[in-house]
Structures are given as C-alpha cells and as structure tokens.
Amino acid sequence: MRQGDLLGKARAISDNRGAGKLGQGRAMIHDKLALLRRRSGMSQQEVAATIGVTRQTVSKWGTEGV
C-alpha cells in the first residue's frame, strides 16, 4: 500500500466517525488506522512524517477514547 493510499483511507475512515456511539467510532477508527499502518509496513514515525504531525500524536490517536 502506498503512503498516499494510507492517508486517503485514513481520511475516509475519519469522515465516517460519527456512525454509532462516539466511543465505538473512536475504537473503530483506531483499529482501522492501526491495521492500515501495519499493512503498509509503516511505523508511527513514518505515518507522522507523511501527514505532518508528531509520532506522539499518531500514538495518542491509538489510545484516546478507547
């Protein structure tokens, strides 16, 4: 999976975050982002650099609201 594909899919997932209860939506987003990141072979640092945030921000997305 190319880095651009990962970013596009992450945006599509975040656009659907309102579906269901808020906590469930956040967990679903976390799970999908983690899966996409692993499938692409990217580290949190690589994802962060690709989208212009810190690695800590990417890590926080994985734990916030779950």
Automatic annotation (TrEMBL):
Q: Do you know which PROSITE patterns this protein is assigned to?
A: HTH_CROC1
Residues of the HTH cro/C1-type domain: 33-61
Q: Which Pfam families match?
A: HTH_3
Gene Ontology MF, one: DNA binding
**Which InterPro entries did the record assign?**
Cro/C1-type_HTH, Lambda_DNA-bd_dom_sf
Protein name (record) = HTH cro/C1-type domain-containing protein
Task: Give the organism, scientific name.
Answer: Enorma massiliensis
